């Protein structure tokens, strides 16, 4: 056991253990989200060796695109698995939905109110740009950004990408190289939707969507599902789960005023005139809170799964998680440090580049991948000797999360 | 047929137009978009967490700022965006840092693209036609590169 594992393990009696992880392959299957969710849930239960009848708490990640069943996802999955009397909850936190669901399960277990919790996220997505809900809604920033500006999600990603170019000298080739790396990582991932190598030339030859980002720099939207089974440390001991992967931190902090980085779907930032600039940006704060909760630092991390909605955004996250200094992520990438086998592999799963985004499932999928990585079960994409992993994502309206797992 | 702002109370329309903001009467924190009944919000609650102000003054923001970042829309955005031309013509977008300490997103003035922009470059506010409907031209604020 490394020093880090000992440190993270200090509070082992109070920690929550990941007993099982399971997924439904990402794709464009066009079937009902419930089917994907139940598939992932059963896979996670099977992986854990725990019977469905032992689950006393189910948390579903809400999907806003699938009608009432999606709004009450916890109930929907519990019912589809066959009512077993478990308590239920449903979480919605945009891209951080899965992490908030995991946090709800963790809290009940830590409070001693539950022993075995099942967390499930699943989605069925439409084609093309994610558009706002129909109707005239002049008080809804998500509607206004389209009506007044024609501001799509990729356009926000492009603003961040362009800043890296003008401030740090990033190039379109650098961004393409992130895609090349992640495409290679995902080649052997049975859950990935896109399992095909990409070259820098492929990326640069794909049409520009929002300058400087090409089509292949931007992640697609997918159908998919992911699930984890969480248990108390005591339950794990009683059931012979030795040396399990533990949840060392779940950060779901919100921004601190003033939020000075323009965020989807807003048309402006807070003003920093009254208080000055904040100590950390929102994304930096998400990771920092996770490190503080786990009692470790970025130097202790072996592997990271970050939200690469665009190739350039992966570079932002590497810096936001303090895996290198501001403006240094391109150097890390060029040196091969973020490739499997490098100093700090990023997105060994293949990331959103290979999966496409299935919003309520994605943060759980990140946790599944790290679980397999820390167990040494990530066949064909294993980060050798990984003991500590971190996830990160950020979505609309002050939602974001970072989860640290340790073994 | 007259030209009317596509949204009420967000910007003025004189030759040298300004964005309109709400400034907290207690702590002076400025917010854009402003409190606007047309946009469904009549009440003001100061967003500075250290302030419980609920009264505001309508103020004009500086006309000039510097580019925080920029991009464009090579494909037609989905509704409720209304393309002013058929076939669709790409347009540029800029996030602009104002002296009041906030960044405001807007389209870039007609005839200007990403090649005319640079992080840190100076731009100024103009008002142009966003689309035309049964009432006439609907106008919107835009950022125009300042050529030295
Ligand atoms: Zn105030």
List the helices and strands and how they pair.
The complex is a heterodimer of chains A (407) and B (148).
Chain A: H1 3-8, E1 16-27, H2 33-48, E2 57-61, H3 67-71, H4 73-81, E3 87-91, H5 97-110, E4 116-123, H6 141-149, H7 153-168, H8 172-186, H9 200-205, E5 208-210, E6 213-214, E7 223-232, H10 233-238, E8 245-251, H11 282-294, E9 303-306, H12 311-320, H13 329-334, H14 351-355, H15 359-375, E10 388-394, E11 400-406
Parallel strand pairs in A: 2-3, 2-4, 9-10
Antiparallel strand pairs in A: 1-7, 1-8, 4-7, 5-6, 8-11, 10-11
Helix pairs in contact in A: 2-4, 5-15, 7-12, 8-12
Chain B: E1 4-5, E2 20-24, E3 30-31, E4 56-60, E5 64-73, E6 91-97, E7 103-108, E8 122-133, E9 136-145
The complex binds zinc ion.
The site of zinc ion has 8 residues of chain B, from loops.
Describe this structure in words.
The complex is a heterodimer of chains A (407) and B (148). Chain A contains 15 helices and 11 strands. Chain A is an alpha/beta fold and 407 residues long. Chain A has a domain at 2-128 and 222-238: 3-Layer(aba) Sandwich (Peroxisomal Thiolase, Chain A, domain 1). In chain A, a hairpin with a 2-residue loop joins strand 5 and strand 6. In chain A, helix 2 (33-48) crosses helix 4, helix 5 packs across helix 15 and helix 8 (172-186) crosses helix 12 (311-320). The longest helix of chain A is centred in the C-terminal third of the chain and has 17 residues, at 359-375. Chain A starts with a helix and ends with a strand. Chain B is mostly beta strands and 148 residues long. Chain B has a domain at 64-145. Chain B has strands at 4-5, 20-24, 30-31, 56-60, 64-73, 91-97, 103-108, 122-133, 136-145. In chain B, the strands form 2 sheets. Chain B has a 5-stranded mixed barrel with strand order 5-6-7-9-8. Chain B has a 3-stranded antiparallel beta sheet with strand order 3-2-4, with no helix packed on it. Chain B is globular, with a radius of gyration of 16 Å. The model of chain B has no long low-confidence stretch (mean pLDDT 93). Chains A and B meet through helix 6, helix 7 and strand 5 of A and strand 3, strand 5, strand 6 and strand 7 of B. Bound molecules: zinc ion. Residues 24, 26-27, 29, 46, 48, 51, 53 of chain B line the site of zinc ion (ZN). Chain A: InterPro entries: Thiolase, Thiolase-like, Thiolase_C_2, Thiolase_N. Chain A: Pfam families: Thiolase_C_1, Thiolase_N. Chain A: Residues 16-233 form the Thiolase N-terminal domain. Chain A: It comes from Nocardioides caeni.
């Amino acid at each position: 056991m490394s020093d880090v594992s000992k440190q993270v393990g200090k509070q082992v009696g109070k920690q929550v253990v990941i007993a099982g992880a399971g997924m439904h392959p990402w794709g464009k299957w066009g079937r009902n989200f419930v089917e994907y969710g139940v598939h992932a849930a059963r896979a996670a239960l099977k992986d854990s060796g725990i019977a469905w009848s032992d689950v006393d708490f189910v948390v579903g990640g809400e999907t806003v695109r699938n009608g009432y069943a999606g709004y009450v996802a916890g109930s929907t999955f519990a019912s589809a698995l066959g009512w077993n009397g478990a308590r239920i909850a449903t979480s919605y936190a945009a891209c951080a939905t899965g992490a908030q669901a995991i946090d709800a399960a963790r809290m009940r277990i830590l409070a001693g109110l539950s022993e075995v919790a099942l967390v499930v996220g699943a989605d069925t997505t439409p084609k093309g740009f994610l558009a706002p809900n129909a109707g005239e809604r002049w008080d809804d920033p998500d509607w206004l950004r389209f009506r007044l500006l024609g501001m799509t999600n990729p356009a926000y990603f492009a603003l961040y990408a362009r800043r890296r170019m003008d401030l740090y000298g990033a190039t379109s080739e650098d961004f393409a190289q992130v895609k090349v790396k992640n495409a290679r990582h995902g080649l052997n991932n049975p859950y990935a939707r896109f399992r095909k190598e990409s070259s820098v030339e492929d990326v640069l030859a794909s049409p520009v969507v929002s300058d400087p980002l090409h089509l292949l720099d931007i992640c697609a939207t997918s159908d998919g599902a992911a699930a984890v089974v969480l248990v108390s440390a005591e339950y794990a001991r009683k059931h012979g789960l030795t040396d399990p992967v533990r949840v060392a931190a779940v950060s779901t902090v919100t921004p601190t005023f003033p939020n000075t980085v323009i965020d989807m779907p807003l048309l402006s930032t807070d003003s920093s005139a009254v208080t000055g600039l904040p100590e950390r940006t929102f994304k930096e704060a998400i990771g920092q809170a996770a490190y503080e909760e786990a009692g470790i630092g970025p130097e202790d991390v072996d592997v990271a799964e970050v939200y690469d909605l665009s190739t350039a955004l992966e570079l932002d996250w590497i810096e936001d998680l303090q895996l290198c200094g501001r403006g240094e992520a391109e150097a890390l990438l060029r040196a091969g440090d973020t490739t499997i086998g490098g100093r700090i592999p990023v997105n060994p799963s293949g990331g959103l580049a290979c999966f496409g985004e299935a919003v309520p499932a994605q943060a759980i999928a990140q946790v599944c991948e790290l679980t397999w990585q820390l167990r040494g079960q990530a066949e064909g994409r294993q980060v050798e000797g990984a003991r500590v992993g971190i996830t990160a994502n950020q979505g609309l309206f002050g939602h974001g999360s970072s989860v640290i797992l340790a073994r | 047929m007259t030209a009317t702002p596509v949204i009420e109370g967000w910007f003025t329309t004189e030759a040298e137009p300004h964005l309109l903001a709400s400034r907290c009467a207690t702590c002076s924190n400025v917010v854009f978009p402003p409190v606007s009944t047309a946009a469904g919000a009549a009440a003001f609650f100061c967003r500075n967490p250290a302030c419980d102000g609920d009264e505001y003054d309508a103020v004009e923001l500086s006309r000039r700022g510097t580019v925080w970042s920029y991009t464009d829309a090579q494909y037609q955005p989905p509704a409720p965006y209304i393309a002013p031309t058929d076939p669709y013509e790409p347009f540029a977008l800029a996030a602009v840092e104002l002296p009041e300490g906030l960044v405001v997103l807007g389209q870039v003035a007609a005839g200007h693209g990403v090649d005319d922009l640079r992080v840190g470059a100076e731009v100024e506010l103009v008002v142009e036609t966003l689309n035309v409907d049964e009432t006439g031209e609907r106008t919107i604020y835009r950022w125009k590169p300042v050529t030295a």
